[in-house]
Amino acid sequence: MKFGWISAIRDNLVEIGNERKRSRIMLAIGLSLLASLCYACAGIFAQRGLHQLPTPWGAWITLVVNSLFLWLLHLLVSPEAPIFISANLIFVFIGFFVPGLTRVLNFRGIRTLGASVTSTVINSTPMFATALAVIFLGERPGLVVLSGLGVIVGGLTAISWGGGRGWWSQLELFYPLLAAVFFAGKDVLARWGMGITGQPILAVAIASITGTVEVYFLLSWIQGDRFRLPPPRIFFWFAISGLFTGGSFVFQYLALFIENVSIVSPIVNTYSVFVLVLAPLLARGIERVTLRKVIGAVGVVAGVALISIGRS
């Protein structure tokens, strides 16, 4: 007992460490929920704009507003952070896919399937993250994770089956599904890259501006669409969507910076629940929330929860 005070100090330090860990996890969960809410609002407001003017340039307008918001935030928070370093090329690569290609894929889904279906399909991102981990990282998911994957597939089937738009509506699921694959890869790369640079705000700003430039060239050069500024009443919805997109990116990158992907990704990707709750209020007469969509969304969210439990 002569050195009992050493054991007491050690125990206190362990308790302090555990408390800090719990606080960090709760903060990450809170940030992830905020990101989920912002994603839902961004999708609904974008749908309002597309309902009035179905222009492919709506995605680009949201990205421009998103990039301006993020770079302004970077200049306010960490203007001294180095930009032109090799490690930041990671986020240029991420930006090529997210928000670059995924923004176009997401808008294609919203235009043809609606915000509820599109957001719920993209909620399958943790499923693809698990598959990528098995292939490239050698992970072996347990029975709980595999059960979650099965529930997600069942939820997606409930959403797409009997949509009333024929076989074409089933084919349209390809676009949000591909976006989900890109989102899954982004989560892993973003956490790894921020572990090197330690600058989450700059990271998301670089990814965003990369996607903005890319989408412009995709629309103007490859698709040959000429940019036309929409009327102010329609531009407003795309701009608001861009602000909420910026908020969602900030909250998600901050959450990934402080906590594991397996905790952050499943929570962020439950935003279809927010869409189903907010759609009757913010998209009345535009987005129909049916019982089938609700059941499918519940299935996907339940599957995401099972994956989260299994991976933790």
Topology, element by element:
Blueprint: H1 4-52, H2 57-77, H3 89-113, H4 115-122, H5 125-137, H6 143-160, H7 167-171, H8 174-197, H9 200-222, H10 232-258, H11 261-268, H12 271-282, H13 291-311
Helix pairs in contact: 1-10, 1-11, 1-12, 2-3, 2-9, 2-10, 3-4, 3-8, 3-9, 4-8, 4-12, 4-13, 5-8, 6-13, 9-10, 11-13
Could you tell me the number of beta strands? 0
The whole-angstrom Rg is 21 Å
- Total discrete domains: 1
Uncertain residue ranges = 163-168
Number of helices: 13
Intertermini distance: 38 Å
**pLDDT averaged over residues:** 80
Largest beta sheet, briefly?
none
How much helix is in the residues? over 70%
So what's the overall shape?
globular
In N-to-C order, the SSE pattern is: HHHHHHHHHHHHH
Category by helix and strand content: mainly alpha
Query: What fraction of the residues are assigned to beta strands by DSSP?
Result: under 5%
